[in-house]
Specification:
Distance between the termini: 20 Å
Order of helices and strands: EEEEEEE
Strand content: 25-35%
Number of helices: 0
Structural class: mainly beta
Length: about 90
Amino acid sequence: PAGQGDVCFSADGRYLIGASNGERDAVVWDTQAFPAKGERGESDKVLRPWAALPCKGKVGCVEWNPRYNMLATADREVVFWLPEEHVGVKPP
């Protein structure tokens, strides 16, 4: 069902990576980003996705390898990601 899947933190604890609600992307949240503002200007305390990583299939599990600074996403096939700032990242 939509909304279920695996998530994990990056090695430094700044980023949270997980499935994007049934879409074919992995979503990245920046835990140090400021929450969005509500209608009256106050913080709604909801962390919005920072970026989406394009995947060929759905993301069923996500795992971060801190030793090699590498991310793996998988469902029926495994995809390995090496982080480079703003390369191949599209806004959600």
